[in-house]
Amino acid sequence: MNAPTEQLNHQADASGQASLLRFITAGSVDDGKSTLIGRLLFDSKGIFADQLAAVSRSKHKRTVGDTIDLSLLTDGLEAEREQGITIDVAYRYFATPKRKFIIADTPGHEQYTRNMVTGASTADAVIILVDVSKVKLGDDGSVELLTQTKRHSTIAKLLQIEHVIVAVNKMDLVNYDQTVYERIVGAYTEFAQSLGLKDITAIPLSALAGDNVVDKSDNMAWYDGPTLIELLEGLSVYDEAHAAPFRFPVQLVARHNGHEANDFRGYMGRVESGKIAVGDKIVVQPSGHEATVKEIITFDGPLQQAVAGQSVTLLLNEYVDISRGDVLANAEQPATLLKQVTADVCWMADEPLDVRRKYWIKHGTRQTMAKVKSIDDILDVNTQQRHAADGLKLNDIARIQIAVQQPLAADAYADIRATGAFILIDEVTHQTVAAGMIRIAE
Fold first, then answer.
1. Residues 146, 295: one domain?
2. pLDDT on residue 267
3. Domain check: are 188 and 251 in the same one?
4. Residue 207 pLDDT more than 80?
5. 71 lies in the same domain as 199
6. 311 has which bridge partners?
7. Hey, CA dihedral for 220, 226, 230, 235, is it positive or negative?
């Protein structure tokens, strides 16, 4: 468990502007995720007066007296307000003088774990909320964490979220007892070690009362670390995509209108990793044809170089057959061409997996038919043990073997997220049934 002060290493982008941090809240039902985000927005002046007035007038207010129900700032669906739970992923944006933030408020209920996976897929950090009133503290010193706390931590590990903040919430319900806090943190640390999570920071707080969220709490003088907002402002975010080999999934082949003499042929897309410069040699995958970059065009004009995150149009010196779904890659460090993939998946459909059926696999900009050949094992989120299984149902996390009709230009998810991730789609209903991370290529 890292000391909180070790995290305070704020990073700015190349222009000197405050960097962007994407983070999510996760945990079990009623752990206070929506209230925490509402408190962050309220105390950091991140909401407008009319939003505050609308929340104050809400017929589904669940607080006592004139106290504002801050959870309603993110729980926007009528069903969420009626039941007092989060169902969909709610995104909120706010900024402090030091940093910009995108928050994803994700559901805690097991039924909506798939929505948590969606919100976590682009996050730099995750706040795992632990409700002190729900943790079972045994007289023998034992501590039993909730299953959803373990499930969401497991997903954070699978998705390789860089920073994990353990927010021990509702400390006001245990009279801000330091011993209770330390026992819970100790139990979570032990579980996190079994997962392989490394960058973990704990903080005691009360989202409802505002203790240690934006302002320092006088009720926990024993805690000498930063507040939650200070911690978030200081987290360093290293984008590994910039150091990885060049990957450019082609989204569209652009042609001129047919009346010009020159034969303009540009390949449009987003640089998912690495960088590309005029004169660089690339390889088209899966065909294997090589070419040289002639021009890099953007809406604002030509560039000599483009880096991960930029959407550009590439012009090549050579005429080669390139279509949507192909990947332009570094000629010396190409992606691996796969017709069979070993991957970890989270099953997201109400209907169980049917290994007799075919599914669509969406990988980057390529979509092709796929078939699940076998299920290697299912992960038990409580024990972290894997066991055999002959099927998958909603929220199961498993390692499977997939055969694809057309080869995928892919990388291991641990190396490059964009070309290591995919989704499976039901060919009849067109619903997403699974999200996957490539682990082993065969």
1. no
2. 96
3. no
4. yes
5. yes
6. 270
7. negative
Question: How many other CB atoms are there within 10 angstroms of residue 69's CB atom?
Answer: 21
Q: How many whole angstroms separate alpha carbon 90 and alpha carbon 115?
A: 10
Residues 141 and 159 both lie in one domain: yes
Q: What is the pLDDT of residue 209?
A: 86
Q: Which of 238, 268, 296 is the last residue of a domain?
A: 238
- Mean local confidence (pLDDT), 13-32: 71
- Rounded CA-CA distance 26/142 in Å is 23
CATH of the domain at 50: 3.40.50.300
Closest CA to 173 of 140, 211, 224: 211
The reply to whether 162 and 301 lie within a common domain is no
> CA 218, CA 240: separation in Å to the nearest integer?
39
Structure tokens at 331: 């000629």
What CATH code is carried by the domain that includes residue 373?
A: 2.40.30.10
Q: How far apart are CA 268 and CA 263, in angstroms?
A: 16
The Cα 321–Cα 311 span in angstroms is: 21
Residue with tokens 């991140």: 46
333 Cα distance to chain centroid: 26
Report the alpha-carbon distance of residue 4 to residue 231 in Å, rounded. Answer: 7
Q: Could you count the other beta carbons within 10 Å of the beta carbon of residue 249?
A: 22
Looking at the structure, do residues 54 and 102 belong to the same domain, yes or no?
Answer: yes
Identify the DSSP state of 173. Answer: G
141-172 per-position pLDDT tens digit = 899 998 888 888 988 888 888 899 999 999 99
**How does 171-187 read in b/e, with b if 16+ C-beta sit within 10 Å?**
bbebebeeebbebbbeb
For the chain, the domain total comes to 3
Rounded Cα distance between 181 and 139, Å, is 15
Rounded to 5°, angle at Cα 120 from 203 and 228: 20
Lowest mean pLDDT among 31-40, 166-175, 284-293, 350-359: 31-40
Would you say residue 47 has pLDDT above 70? no
**Separation between Cα atoms, residue 123 and residue 403, nearest integer Å:** 29
Say how far apart CA 248 and CA 329 lie, in whole Å: 6
Count of other CB atoms within 10 angstroms of residue 383: 10
| Domain carrying residue 271 | 242-330
Measured in residues, the chain has a length of 442
The tokens for 277 are 């410069």
pLDDT in tens, 218-273: 999 999 999 999 999 999 876 677 889 999 999 999 987 655 556 788 999 999 99
Residues 43 and 71 reside in one and the same domain: yes
Q: Which of 64, 69, 39 is nearest to 169 (CA)?
A: 39
